[in-house]
Specification:
The complex is a heterodimer. By secondary structure, chain A is α+β, with helices and mostly antiparallel strands. Helix content of chain A is 50%, strand content 14%. Chain A has one domain: Arc Repressor Mutant, subunit A (Orthogonal Bundle), CATH 1.10.10.10. By secondary structure, chain B is an alpha+beta fold. In chain B, strands 12, 13, 14, 15, 16, 17, 18, 19, 22, 23 and 24 form an eleven-stranded mixed β-sheet that branches. Chain B has a six-stranded mixed beta barrel with strand order 3-4-9-6-8-7. Chain B has a two-stranded antiparallel sheet with strand order 20-21. The two termini of chain B are 60 Å apart. The chains are: A alpha+beta, B alpha+beta. At the A-B interface, helix 2, helix 3 and strand 3 of A face helix 1, helix 2 and helix 4 of B.
């Protein structure tokens, strides 16, 4: 897969929160959704997703509930808690700030220095 | 909140969560399989690929558990279960390790009890560090604590700014009558603020009011808890002390023990006349420092104060300073013994740990394959470390519990061996007990021991995993014979360390035993065998002056002379010797010897078997009207009359008003039991200088205690109202005096014996391991024609090299430590080189002997069997 980008440390949590913010989803679904919304550039090692989910749940950012998936299988669905919504907003804002700052810096030309 | 709930849920519904997690991960793979099938994969192939893509399921589960925050709990349960299983599989190891730890921890607990009660809490007083003992001292000699004159005490009390309270007391040998046999009671006369200074309140009743510390109103007493129990007195009841009726107004709590072993406190009353005496010094003084004043500052202030007093009253106070010593430090010498024993038991525990570390290392190597497998299944390296730790902590906690029992048992034994008399000398000895501090300490060292034991294995684990890969380990382990260089080095260091520690302990024990033996030997100055002693303090109410007292003694001696089986009855008692002056000479320098004064009767030297060197002994004819005479001990006489005879010369033991004494003879030296030094003594006649209290000494033909009843009766016949106490054989008296050193020597010897045993065990197990590890190699050698002798030599050389390393290190440490011990313990003997050599040789030989058995086994290896085992 040539177009895959390395995941920056700490961004996995943010991506999960974003994916879940689009609607309650189970683990496998979250994985697919992250791939989907990132235009298949970001993929996550499948097993690594779950420790992150458990961690977010423990931090009260996610809530979980057993349900039935579109494949008619029993699955655990995650959704954002109010704290999760707030955290996602904060993270997005700070990410955007950092990203645009880095982008500006990287696009600087010699005469601007 | 939620995480708390999850924790609770996790604890109580763990299996459900575990199931949930498994189900969730399985669902993930099922979904993936569905997708793959939909993409055209065969169902079986799809399932396989889904699993592959997912990765190490167990590893992720582990991370999930960790993320959930419950990992430790799950892991602990797992580790514990696993530990129990693996220990059950090797009960020999579990028993050996648990037992060594139990012994090591037991010894440590027992010695820590002494540390706790004697060093840390000698007294139960709040802010003990602020309570000081004050005394007068000769400024030229310094560092002594002499009694204080009343007028000086009141000047100190008035002018000082360092102390909240300054309080005086005086010991009082009181005669208790009216409760059956007359009895001598250890009492103290104390100022009203004495209890305030110590910060202690009575358990029941009250302590003295200021108005009760006046002559005439001072007939009230406070009694100790023990006295209240043994004499069944209640508040308001009266007791007769020295013929005066006293009312009991208070009972002190059980832990109150000052002065040590005191039974009764009475008010210290001053008349205006006694208050202004500067020439008689008979008070002890304690003070409580103000919160912000240090002992140094108080010392400086008191020194300045003493200098002022010396200028104002040069006649009495010239050259007198003030000593200020924290009360908590009075156990100085016993503290040193306690510390040494504590160290010794610490060494034993360290040895036990090294031994267990060694056993663990061997086990660890044997379990390398299992460890490798667990790693392959996703167990992290630290997970394995935690597993090792759990195992040894389980053993160490079990060992700690067993050690607690051992320590408790040993403590009980120790307490029965302490003579009652000694309780008066060592503060805190009465309160030896296992309390919360001791338990906490025991728990702490158990955990520490458990961790220390594991360090070698952990070191091994971490080293190995960082070096060769997992596959390598598995391959090697599969072959059954692992010989890791690092492991061997660790084992060698451990055993060398054990040998070194054992040598240090052996030398320490040798030092103690020799010190003790010398203490027994130095009393050669007298012959304690067959001597009975009894003490009497004639009540001052019955015997108002020296003449009456001397007559009482004389009549008692006459009665004792009639006893059968008593060839010599005599008495001795201390008399004041405040100055030392030889006619026609300058006053002696501070560093020159000054004698103690002792009044004796005619046959004292005979009874104690002290030889006469020159001249004559004190005789019964040396009465009050005769010429005053004195007999000097040899060392004293030799010092001042190096090449001439002192006979006929005159000396004085008091100030200008005291009479000159003519030297009548010179007698053999009596040596101090502790240091073995000759004590300079000037003996005078009890009829010329009657002592206030005496010790009768009866030389008997048979067992001295058989004559005790008859000797008591002899005193009774003269006066039935005097208390007779400390009825003992002279040997008992000496045993009491040396009991501290004796118990130290005993404990050290036991520690050293355990250490020796542990070191031999270590040597044995390492040699065994060495042999087991190289069985195949040995088999090959034998097959190629090596003789059994050369194999034996090979194993023994290995052991000899290790032991030699340990002995070399141990020898250096032992020499240094014994030098320190000799220096810190007053007069402890030095260890001669020959002892070092003997102990070193003994230890080295034993280590070789321990290795001999496994070596023997190796020498008779059957090559056919070992090679087939490959």
């Amino acid at each position: 897969m040539p177009n895959q980008a390395e995941l920056l440390p700490g961004t996995l949590d943010m991506l999960i929160l974003k994916a879940v913010s689009l609607g309650p989803q189970h683990g496998y679904g979250i994985l697919l959704r992250i791939g989907q919304i990132s235009g298949d550039t970001l993929t996550i090692e499948q097993g690594a997703l779950y420790p992150a989910l458990y961690r977010l749940e423990r931090q009260d950012l996610l809530d979980s509930e057993w349900g039935v998936s579109e494949n008619n299988r029993r699955a655990k669905f995650y959704q954002l808690t109010p704290a999760g919504v707030k955290r996602l907003k904060e993270e997005t804002r700070s990410w955007n700030r950092t990203a645009s700052a880095v982008a500006t810096a990287l696009s600087a030309r010699p005469q601007e220095a | 909140m939620k995480s708390l709930r999850m924790l609770a849920a996790g604890m109580f519904r763990r299996s459900r969560m575990e199931r949930d997690m498994a189900e969730e991960l399985a669902a993930h793979m099922d979904h993936r399989t569905d997708d793959l099938v939909r993409a055209g994969c065969a169902p079986a192939e799809a399932a396989r690929r889904a699993r592959m893509e997912f990765g190490a399921v167990e590893g992720y589960k582990e991370s999930c558990r960790e993320a959930r925050g419950l990992a430790w709990f799950d892991e602990l349960r797992g580790n514990l279960r696993y530990t129990v299983r693996s220990l059950r599989a090797s009960p020999g190891y579990a028993l050996a390790a648990g037992l060594s730890l139990a012994i090591g921890i037991g010894a440590n607990l027992c010695s820590f009890v002494s540390v706790n009660s004697i060093m840390l809490h000698p007294f139960p007083f709040a802010h003990l560090e602020r309570i000081m003992l004050l005394g007068e001292m000769n400024t030229r000699v310094g560092a002594e604590r002499n009694p204080v004159a009343a007028a000086n005490f009141f000047d100190w009390k008035e002018s000082n700014r360092s102390f909240e309270v300054l309080s005086a007391f005086r010991n009082w040998d009181a005669l208790l009558t009216g409760t059956g046999e007359p009895e001598r009671v250890q009492a103290a006369r104390v100022s009203a603020d004495f209890f305030v200074a110590l910060g202690m309140a009575p358990a029941r009743g009250r302590v003295f009011a200021e108005r009760e510390c006046q002559p005439g109103s001072d007939t009230v007493v406070v009694v100790s808890h023990a006295f209240q129990k043994s004499h069944v007195v209640s508040l308001g009841q009266t007791i007769s002390l020295d013929g005066r009726i006293h009312t009991v107004i208070g009972v002190m709590p059980e832990e109150f023990d000052f002065p040590l072993a005191n039974q009764v406190w009475a008010p210290l009353a001053f008349t205006p006349e006694s208050k202004s005496r500067r020439d008689i010094a008979d008070l002890a003084v304690i003070g409580r420092l103000k919160a912000d004043v240090s002992a140094e500052r108080a010392r400086a202030e008191m020194a300045a104060l003493a200098a002022t007093l010396a200028r104002r009253y040069p006649q009495s106070n010239e050259g007198r300073g003030v000593s200020v010593q924290p009360l908590g430090e009075i156990n100085d010498i016993s503290n040193r013994f306690v510390t040494i024993i504590w160290f010794a038991s610490g060494f034993v525990l360290l040895l036990a740990c090294a031994n267990i570390g060694n056993l663990q290392l061997a086990r660890f190597t044997a379990r390398q394959k299992e460890m490798g497998l667990r790693t392959a299944l996703g167990a992290g390296r630290f997970r394995l470390v935690r597993q090792l730790l759990t195992e040894s902590l389980v053993i160490s906690v079990a060992g700690g519990l067993a050690g607690l029992y051992l320590g408790w048992w040993q403590l009980g034994l120790m307490k029965t061996m302490i003579p009652t008399e000694v309780l008066r000398w060592v503060a805190g000895l009465r309160h030896l007990q296992i309390d919360a501090t001791v338990l906490a300490f025991g728990f702490g060292i158990s955990l520490a021991a458990g961790i220390v034991c594991t360090l070698p294995s952990i070191y091994q684990l971490l080293r190995q995993r960082s070096g060769d890969g997992l596959a390598e380990t598995l391959k090697e382990a599969g072959r059954g014979a692992v010989s890791s260089r690092a492991g061997n080095r660790a084992r060698t260091v451990l055993v060398a360390g054990e040998v070194a520690l054992a040598l240090v302990l052996l030398v320490g024990a040798g030092l103690m035993v020799r010190t003790f033996n010398r203490m027994l030997a130095v009393n050669a100055g007298i012959d304690p065998k067959g001597v009975l002693t009894l003490e009497v303090t004639p009540s001052p109410n019955a015997y108002r002056d020296g003449t009456q007292t001397a007559q009482f003694y004389q009549r008692v001696l006459a009665e004792m002379d009639t006893l059968s089986g008593v060839p010599a009855a005599a008495l001795s008692g201390g008399v004041g010797a405040s100055k030392w002056e030889i006619e026609g000479r300058d006053a002696p320098q501070p560093a020159e010897p000054r004698p103690d004064g002792r009044a004796i009767s005619g046959r004292y030297f005979q009874a104690m078997r002290i030889p006469m060197v020159e001249g004559r002994s004190i005789a019964d004819q040396d009465g009050p009207e005769a010429t005053r005479v004195v007999v000097l001990s040899q060392t004293l006489a030799r010092y001042y009359w190096r090449n001439s005879s002192p006979i006929g010369r005159r000396v004085r033991l008091g100030g200008a008003s005291s009479p000159w004494l003519t030297v009548a003879g010179v007698c053999g030296d009596v040596r101090d039991w502790f240091g073995g030094e000759a004590v300079p003594i000037a003996y005078v006649s009890y009829r010329q200088e009657p002592p206030l209290a005496v010790r009768f000494a009866l030389r008997t033909v048979r067992d001295p205690l058989h004559s005790a009843g008859a000797a008591r009766m002899a005193i009774r016949r003269v006066d039935a109202n005097q208390a007779i106490y400390n009825v003992k054989s002279m040997e008992q008296v000496l045993a009491e005096e040396t009991s501290g050193v004796k118990s130290a020597a005993t404990v050290m010897s036991i520690d050293a014996a355990i250490a020796l045993l542990l070191a031999l065990m270590g040597s044995y197990s390492v040699a065994s391991f060495f042999v087991a590890q190289r069985t195949q190699e040995i088999g090959v050698r034998v097959a190629l024609g090596a003789s059994p002798g050369s194999i034996l030599r090979m194993v023994l050389t290995q052991t000899a090299r290790t032991s030699a390393l340990g002995l070399a290190v141990g020898l250096v440490v032992a020499v240094a430590l014994s030098a320190i011990m000799s220096r810190t313990l007053l007069h402890a003997v030095a260890v001669e080189p020959v002892t070092f050599v003997a102990l070193t040789a003994m230890l080295g030989a034993s280590a070789l002997l321990a290795a001999y058995f496994p070596a023997q086994r190796a020498a008779h290896v059957d090559p056919a069997i070992t090679l087939r085992g490959e």
